[in-house]
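dumping this here before i forget
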Amino acid sequence: MADKVEQQQIPTESNVVDKRSEEQIASEVDTTAEEMIAEETFQLTIKLPGSKGSDIKIIASPREAIHDIKQSVMESPESCAHSCFYLALNGTRLNDFAELGEIEGMTPETELQLVEDTYTERDVRLHINRLRDLLGGPYKPNPSAVGIDSGISFLTAVTGEIDEEIVPESEKKMEDLFSSDPIPEHAFTNTDLEASSKLSDFVPPTFQRLAPQCIKSLSLSGWNPVPHARRLKGDLLYLIVVTLENETLNITASTQGFFVNNITNNKFDPTRKSGGKKMGAHSLIKLLQQASPKFASSFIELQDFITCHHMLEVLPVNTYFPAHPWAVQSPEHAFDPARPAEPLLNFGADAVESMRDWNDELQSHRELPKTNLQERVLRERLINKVQSEFTEAAVRGAVAVVNGSVVPLNPMEPDESHMYVYNNIFFSKGNDGRGTFEALGADEAAHVATGKDLEGVKIFNSVDAAGLYTLGSVIVDYKGIRVVAQSIVPGIFRRQDENSIVYGSVDNGAQISADEKFHEAIGNEIAKSLHLDEHTLIDANDEKVKLYTSLETKGLLGADGRRYMLDLYRLNPVDIEFQDKECVDKDDIPAYPHKMTLLRPELMGLFWEHRFREWVKVKTEEIRKERKLANGGEEPEKKKEEEKPKADGEETKENDEQEQKPEDEEEEIKIDMNEFKLNFNPDVFTSAKLGDDSEAVKEQEQVVREASQFLSNDIIPSLVLDFASYAISPLDGDALTKAMHRRGINMRYLGKVAELVSISKDKRIEHIQKLAVQEMVVRASKHMLRKLLSECPLEQTTACVSHFLNCLFGREFNSKPKPEIPEGTTRNDFSWSRLTPNHVESELKQQILCRFRYKLDDDFLQLLNVLPTLREICLRVGIQLEARDYRFTAYSEEERAELAAEDAARSRQKDQQQKQSSRGKRGGKQKNKNDESLPKRRTTSFVPDDIQNLMPTVKQASGRSVFAEETFEAGKMSLAQGHRQLGIELLLESLTLHEQTYGFLHPETSKCYATLAMIYHHNEDRDAALDLQRKAVIAAERTNGVDHPETIHHYLNLGLFEHAAGRTKLALRYLKHALYYWDLVFGAGHPDSATADNNAGVMLQSLRDYPTSTKFFERACATQENILGKEHVLTATGYHILAKAYTLLGDFNKALNVERVAFGVFEKKLGAEDPRTKESDLWLKELTSNALLSAQRAREQAQSATRPSGVTATSVPNGQQQQHPGNMPIEQAVQFINDASQRTTPSSRKGKKKSQNKRK
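structure:
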């Protein structure tokens, strides 16, 4: 969240341009909002068939089509049995693709009839798939998916049963904070706050994966396909259903519905079965309800189970690649005879529906009109949908390619050069099979180039230039092999008389083409947006050719007439400063692995803006001087001061002040922005032969060198300053990576970032140092595992991964782990089995020195946080581990003694069993059974069976809704500027655009939900805030991951919102869940964790659990003191809060001690007149006097011995208290406690009860 705020600080080209664009956005949104208000909402009544006359209500907009209404009907619990039907208005069938607002006779309160339609073979397949989806529940295990627990959400499990009501603001009143009632049980009751998170708790214990069982099995009959004679009678498919009553039903799916037939395994008799029960129905669900009473009752339970989940938990993730957790429970594999027939049920007998022309779909969607907002939304939604489906197909194809299931197009060439076509997608491997990158680093350079190419595709797609097209592109890393998947350009495989490449070069500059239309199309939008310089190149024939893009970027004219841009990996210039210094061998540091060291597009944008600001300053000074010379006297000085804010790029003054300025003065200070010229030549410092004159080339080279210096000298130090000021505070390596990329910093500078942080010796950013080292270890481990996995067979994958993890993390538990190798082989037969902990450590040091130019300390492995590092490695490589507690430390002496005693007991038991075995076979069987029941003790941290799955990791050129994001940013900007109403309207419109474009389940939609939820929370609209925040949580869980930092922050905010709504126990469940993952992702000591601990403490205080709340406040203080130091104002504020907590606890001595510390810091740092100093001084005086009074009273009580010593002030109730003592003035809080102690009655029963409350 801090990242998003920080992004707004990046300056734009000019305030004038920025303000104008905001006004344009606002006006477009206002127009759209007016259109939406003018549209009346339809409240439709759908009349269901049957004698009962039941109906359902559906709210829809006039722009929704009839097929959208049909989908809503199918998803409704009352009508989910229907899937093959049409909707009729006054007896007339409605077209599925007609919009409600365009149908004649349709009114906002129209009643539509649901009419059962005749089935086709496709309708039957859809109906069966629909039933299978319902029976599987929200979290149906899918062994055919690429990963376990795809797109899973834990919100319903964490929420549990809610026993609190939302309390309106008007009805809220302070509870009796010193009541004698027992402290209510909550999530942190009897919880050890000092214990670290256990991996075995990764999946909440309340999570229910399996839905109630309704039938034993549903499968296709062996009598399929339907014979010709029965087709003429309407038979479409034959099914076999085994009910919970163990009855086998043979069912015919016909054009009129479903009925039970007389077929058996040995006899084909498809006639309708006669009997007492009704054996036919239009819906298979209704037929099973009639035939099986247990199905009818279980199906009601199933519907209740599904409806208790949030809508977004049940929806499939269709527009984004779903997240997969790295720690999973071992899935139970269920028997399902219909599972092997899924391709038939999904795509039909000839699988025609699965064959798609991905390229034509993608490009035709891009050619859709975008003249108004509705057209843009439709276009972007379709593009996102097809890209998501292409990604899913590409991932499956890439896995098949790596597993050897696809025959290459060129089988006679080496493996590195193989190309494949599968499901109309072109696949190639991300290495240097053609020798293109030989001079730049071979395979290492080729691997980087594939990622840069995908980045280039994203940039081109975001510019959305007319007349230029890019391929659908996905990068899949699986089992150590990088596979590039691309849509197929029409005509690319056919032999042509002339070269289809009409822009750029395919032979490294020997022949260079520059088609005029290509050149013009690139120059119109791409070159302006990316600031590309038109430069001259010379080919092998000494002919000069002008290009905008680099030599390697190619323009291809497809057989469909479209102009495609390929090989977009070098859109940006070389990072020449890094290449000159680091791509050569040094005394103790090897050369960087490759020379594909390019500057990031974000950096080029920042550098352009930096130079633009400098130019504006220079230009402004020139204008000032000209005006001074022209006018002379004192007046120009006055005008100069008036101009300065505007010339410096700061915000202008109020409109009324601007109107008072003379018109001629405003005209004089205007600057023509088009005069500023700064473009970048991507071909400088490369092997390309430049044709411009030497001065121009030198100037182009100097610009690129300055950009490279700007990265090292300005951007990287500013990032460290941002870390120190907490403008950004990453929680894991992925967040750190994104923070660096947003500022245009390549990850090869991670070592330099770590060095700068280390040199600063600033405790505030010590966590960044640890995180940077952890990220380098993770990336180096990924490189090592990639190489090992690419060389090992599939069946050795789990052994390879577990042995590597043992060498990296388990050396303290077992310093000499033995790999599990196949029988008949030796350890020396495989590269992975030869690994030792020392070898892994030295290789990591070498890799990090080579790739990040950073020397690790000798004890770096001991300083690593094991679980956070393990998590990052699993996510990057695609490993899914079993969620269990792994041991990484050696046994203590006590544990060794316990194990020895256990072994001795086992030995004695074994001896007794051997004696019994000689008495008969029965005893022998008992012995074998006992032997199997004995748990096998681990000798290593990991075993091969812990590796549940190795899944592909995916990078995709996902589309962006530019207008939705612009509206979102404009809304946030309006809120920041104080225009609250406009900001909320913009954000609401942005949310609608996000949902329509990206869908409900998308990371960008999740951010939009969370932002709006926070605004509604501040407006005290509790219901709206909670609803939006729950959606944000689910969308983040299912697309980012259940333990992603974004998800954790959403859970923390959801807890805050629930507490504000009066449901504190539920809020604490959310906080506990978030803090569990926080510890797993980062560990202890993150600066932001103090805020979460303080929030938990406040919530616990409202439940009167003062001992537990005090522990949270103590932990928050310890974190702040460790990071900021004892003399920091924030630390003092924490101590002041802790003093109040100790006061509520009745421990006045501790309260006095910590308040002294707080007052000392406040007085020193803020001065005696600061309100915080005065408040602390008041607390200090009252606590001091109260300590004296308490001591005197204790002496008197000791002398009189009239009161038991076990009763304390904190256990005494006071029903009259109406204000939280933590927020009231000190004299009132202390007086309250003292008055309560004086009112204590000598009842031993009440005293005992109160002392028990205190112990809680």
